[in-house]
Design a protein that fits this description.
By secondary structure, the chain is mainly alpha-helical. It is about 65% helix and about 0% strand. It has 27 helices and four strands.
Length: about 525
């Protein structure tokens, strides 16, 4: 989700941000951020800090990167590229558009470069970024991102030996991807650029990182496995670098590497917090993946422990990022996901709303309640909670809170489908879930939720249509391999359809996947008992 740079006044060997750099900056001799070579026409003292700042950008550690660039501006106000760094820190290119305040900071920083000396290469970086932040309140952000990508393409062509130009160009393609583009055209183009750079610069943090992002879709994920296996080794100081490979591990159903990645990421966040560095909110994203992987591999006790840990964490302003309280979000999300994954429908129906949770987290609570109630045959509760989700979605449209709108809409559609099922409207429910599933698969939704295709298969199995259910489970497992409930559901559907050999094969996969767990889930017990007759 890596070559010598030309036309620079300061020619340095590639800088590995190793113990010496980290010890000077943060007093921690264990920090490494990767090998970056980005010379600029500033003093040698500014160069060292600048290179460190760029490495932080490549691992999306924007908060710390901005601090470094601001310190360079303070100490060397004529270093034009330091202002570029401040501006780059305002745009988190794969997670949304910068808000008004961030855009203003970037515009002001870039404006200060106009009368400063800069090489032609440096001016190319500055001019390209200015295309995105120019007239930001007036022009569509996707149009501005596309203009920036075109400029970065030119820069990459003019300086082919500049690895960072190539890496940032590839990132710009991801940032300018049209919404819900099922062709993945920009991702594939970014992948072509990055694959060449990765062969030459395997220790460059941005190249490995952006390859993971480019291929973070079920149709492409296997292409990113080499980068995923390397990125954490390149930049082990970065919590995000330790987490990001798990996107690919989750896509491929590799649960133990997924767990290892996110345990390391959470531990790294705790270390940097002890050093009073920024980024505390990012641990909750790693915990999303950790919870999911625990539940797929039969480690319910570990999942419960994680939920308790999050619930007991004291509230903190540090857990707010992008205007949202991610601690409160997690307190709402984790119990809902747990209840539905282990099929505790009563617990799901009784999920409690979390104070201070973002509206999209509140929608998730109602989603869990609705599905739990429907699976318990309580259609009125299922319907009322589905309507609560619709109200939240309508409010998002009114307030133009668009980033999470599609997710909330999908939750409403799924909850409504289950309410329809509880009301006896099976065909209507099937049609709705199929529509959501086809959209999820086309755009490659993030692999931490319950796939709509699996829900569709569950519903068909409940409706005593095991052959049709088996087909849906098998299709879903191609997009979401090694899901616990996907494997079990497929095995049960095959069993009920009289396909005993296939059922045994699927149950055998499930039991093997959970071999190192102490799970007593009824599904796993049934699968093991069934296999005793082998």
């Amino acid at each position: 989700m890596v070559i010598t740079v030309l036309l620079s006044l300061v020619l340095l060997m590639p800088v590995a941000l190793d113990a010496r750099d980290a010890q000077h900056e943060h007093g921690d001799s264990s920090q490494q951020l990767g090998s970056v070579h980005f010379p600029v026409s500033c003093t040698s003292a500014a160069q060292d800090s600048f290179t460190r700042g760029v490495a932080l950008l490549h691992s999306f550690w924007y908060e710390e990167a901005q601090k470094i660039f601001e310190n360079i501006v303070r100490d060397e106000p004529k270093c034009a590229m330091a202002y570029w760094g401040v501006a780059m820190s305002q745009w988190h290119q794969v997670s949304g558009w910068p808000d008004t305040d961030a855009s203003k900071v970037a515009e002001q920083a870039l404006a200060k470069t106009k009368n400063l000396k800069a090489s032609a290469r440096e001016r190319g970086y500055i001019t390209a970024l200015a295309l995105f932040f120019r007239d930001s309140p007036k022009q569509d952000p996707l149009e501005r991102a596309t203009a920036y990508a075109h400029a970065m393409s030119t820069l990459h062509d003019e300086y082919p030996a500049d690895t960072d130009a190539g890496a940032f160009y590839a990132l710009s393609l991801l940032a300018s991807e049209p919404e819900n583009d099922a062709t993945f055209a920009n991702r594939k183009k970014a992948g072509e650029v990055l694959e060449k750079l990765f062969a030459a610069q395997p220790d460059h943090p941005g190249v490995a990182h952006y390859l993971i992002h480019a291929y973070d879709k079920p149709q492409l994920a296997e292409l990113a496995l080499p980068a995923a296996q390397r990125y954490a080794k390149i930049a082990p100081a970065s919590p995000h670098a330790l987490h990001m490979p798990s996107h690919i591990f989750a896509r491929l159903g590799m649960w133990q590497p997924d767990i290892d990645s996110n345990l390391a990421s959470v531990a790294a966040t705790e270390r940097v917090l002890a050093m009073h560095m920024e980024g505390a909110a990012h641990q909750f994203h790693a915990m999303d993946f950790l919870l999911y992987a625990y539940l797929q591999s039969g480690r319910e006790a570990d999942a419960q422990q994680l939920i308790r840990k999050v619930k007991l964490m004291p509230s903190s302003e540090a857990y707010k990022w992008g205007g949202y309280n991610w601690h409160a979000y997690s307190k709402a999300e984790y119990p809902a996901v747990y209840a539905l994954e282990v099929r505790d429908w009563s617990a799901a129906t009784q999920l409690e709303l979390v104070p201070d949770a973002p509206s999209f987290a509140t929608a998730l609570t109602h989603w869990g309640r609705s599905i739990g109630a429907a699976r318990n045959g309580r259609s009125e509760i299922a319907r009322s909670n589905a309507l609560q989700i619709k109200s939240i979605h309508d409010a998002m449209i009114t307030s133009r809170e668009t980033y999470f709108e599609d997710y909330v809409l999908e939750e409403y559609q799924e909850a409504s489908a289950w309410a329809d099922y509880a009301d006896g409207q099976v065909d209507k429910a099937v049609q709705a879930l199929r529509s959501v599933a086809e959209k999820q698969e086309a755009v490659g939704d993030e692999p931490t939720g319950i796939p709509a295709r699996e829900m569709l298969a569950d519903l068909l199995l409940l409706a005593k249509q095991p052959e049709q259910a088996l087909s849906e489970y098998e299709l879903d497992l191609k997009f979401n391999p090694n899901r616990f409930n996907g494997l079990y559901g497929a095995g049960l559907a095959a069993e009920k359809a009289g396909q005993i050999q296939k059922s045994r094969e699927l149950y055998r996969e499930l039991v093997k996947m959970c071999a190192d767990s102490e799970s007593h889930r009824p599904e796993l017990v049934h699968a093991a008992d069934f296999l005793k007759n082998d």
